[in-house]
User: What shape does this take?
Amino acid sequence: MEPVAEADLAVMDVVPASEAKKFVGRSPGQLAWLRLKRDRTAKTTAITILVLLIAAYGAPLWSLIYGSDAYTQNPDLLDGSAKPLGFAGVDGTHWLGVLPGNGEDVLMQLLYGIRTSVSIAIVTAIVVVALGAIIGAVSAFVGGWLDAVINWFIDVMLSLPFLIIALAAVPIVTDLILGGPGERPLAVSASMIVIVLLVFGWMGTARLVRGQVMSLREREFIEAARAAGAGTGHIVFKQILPNVWAPILVSFSMAVPSMVAIEAYLAFLGVGVSQPHPDLGRLVAYAVSQMRIINGWFLLLVGGGTIFLLVLTFNLFGDSVRDALNPKSNR
Amino acid sequence: MRRSARVAAAGGLVLALALTACSQNTGDGDGAADDTKQGSLDIIGTEADSTGPATPVADAKPGGTINYVGQTDFVHLDPSRTYVGSYMMVGSGLLWRTLNGYRENGDGSIKLVGDLATNPGKDVNGDCKTWEYTLKTGLKYQDGTEITAADVAYGVARSFTPELGEGAQFLQNWLQESRDYKGPYDGEKIPPGVAVDGNKITFSFDKARCELPFAVAMPNTAPVPEGKDTKADYDKKPFSSGPYKIESRTIDESMTLVRNEFWDAATDPIRHNYPDKFVFKFGNEPQDTSVRIEANAGGDENLFTFSQVFPDMLSQVTADKAKYDGRYVEGSQKYNGYIAINNNRVKDLATRQALNYAFPRDRWVQLQGGEYASKASTTFMTPSVPGYKEFNAYPTNLDKAKELLGGKTVKLRYAYSNSSELDGQIASMFKDEYAKIGVELETVPLEPTGWYDQIGDPTNDYDMYWAGWGADWPSGSTVIPPCLGEDGISDVPGASTNYSYFTQPDIEAEIDRLEALPISESLPAWGTLDETIMTKYAPYIAADYSAGVWMSGSNVGGLYLNENLSTLDISKLFLRDPALNAS
Assistant: This one.
């Protein structure tokens, strides 16, 4: 019998038993992150979002390079009745043409509009989700009459007609807060929209979190914390909420596209960001006023298409986040 | 296979839709012919002009049903309460006759003539204080009874009633300045200053009222028999003295007019009765109406409307006028548009003059929809008013404007009615343009409802805002005193019509002087006063006067823009083929 070659023995020696059995412990968060990284949709949408954010927030830089800004008026590019000449005013200086009326550059209006929309959406989503989460958690945890009152309040708020109230309230409340009619800087208009969206947006998250918290409320670790003398505040913020971060995160990622869309509706109906500040909803309104000529269709494609892209991208990304956090919810 | 076919079809549909609108905008629909008719000073007609029948409309023939489509119903058809152009057109064109009226022969001419009266009025003592009118014979209501001078007096009397007071108040104020008389329901049947003797009616005034013939052409001299006066309900169904009567009416839905067989064309120098029937339908959005009339589909050929062609469609229609030959009319209207400067706040003449020198009139016209919708103007009176004087006191000059401001930055508040995106764009345009001379404009959006209440308040805190005005009758006396004289300033919020809150003693003296002159002298003098006010005080910025384009279905002929009311002249319309779409 021939002896086993030394080289073979050496190979068998390389992997010690302990290493072969070594496991790396991963938290649910890390697992979710791994799943997200592997998801192709998530990758594509994340890159798209990044590109959009760079395009939007870098707009001041791009306007320097491009040569036009969002506010300069070009009446000489319009015909006698203030509609853009040529094919929607598209030419070498204005890649997406100019707006009817005063002739502002569409590309810059688009980029600044995306910036406004995304900013309002993200800020609102954060505040809405935070507020909803806190109310939902407190309501579920404290229970009893407080829970009943908050529940009833949520039902009432959900039954109010959002659009009608928003249309009526925004101008009135703006005038009230600012003490009379006057010009509204961009910050003021945007804040008013955030407030209106906030008032009507927190209920969904509140209900969601309330459900989660109710199921966590009776768990042993809560009992243990209570036995150890922890107060309600500590339990809610340090024990419970950290355990419901998954639905909160999903709620947030779904709120962002929803806020983008609603802000566009409000602007289209005339109660959004005011003239002459760029806004995606108003772009669509301009498009609608020109539907009898090609300008309208083009502007609709540009404005409506961008809103569609934003909402779709954020929605798909939100879907991927949800799937990553809870793989059992896969179809 | 099926799936791809559907996709291809959808794609094809989108492409087809895009291609129909695919022609590039070359700006061809821009230039409107400048055919604005100037009001003639020879406005008072003769007894011959006051004799019927009215000048026939070319190619007109009797018969058929005309269909009206519009958004809102005619809220006031009671002659005491009518004050809106379209209501007055339906009322005075079809339903009632007045003491005097305007004879428009269809060639741009307009003359004030006797309608119920034999002539425009007899100044008995030559001092304009006593006016006598004799009624024609053979005038009949819709039930065959005769129209009497007493009925005319009663019509004037009921227009004094506060509840029926929405109409013009000139005649009433002239007859009794104190307005103690409150109408025939709790007072005399004949108003103060009026006397009836057989078929004659006389008006007496304590001051010279040389424009009385114009005042009695207003609707409130329409005859109302006392027995047929239904007071508040008269709005819904006035008793007809005109060529048509109301057969049926559902408020806010529809109205049908049929011929008044007792109306005698030989006594009427103004109206016609070509169609057998008028059928009115309300509740249609202006844009839908425009689209429908332009499309002229089967069944729609008998349509007409008072609404102008929707701004969206304007350039498309005007770029291809030949296509709409025979059912298209364009023209200027009597309404001016101006930016009132609040003289209570902007007290510095140099600032007001600078605002005038720098006013971006071309961009204003552009944003209003171009030359078919708006004609640039540098005067307060409009060309259709006899006596109009063309002048340009402040031709555009940015350097001059900057010089007047002395290099300072001026902060002003421009208020606008926030009814559409366009209003915001106009505000934005002003902000941009006035920044060039150092004026920092704060643009203030106001709620559209109650616009006139807001700017009609002398204590408003805005510096510039849009306002418009149309002459009540062809004389500067109904334009300058209400808008640039102290009579137009009222403490009651919303009641002021002098939105510039401008009044100066020398101008007031001149207004008083002109109001006492006979018409032949006063008419051109108003034009000169217009220029004086602007040159000396610049209390407002002249912007434009309105114009429009109107269309009808292809079976409707006789389209003519009425000079007096600046609406489509309903009494000249006829059907080319009476049998088509008859009902």
Notes: Residues 99 and 116 of chain B are 5 Å apart (CA to CA). The radius of gyration of chain B is 25 Å. Confidence is low (pLDDT under 50) at residues 1-21 of chain B.
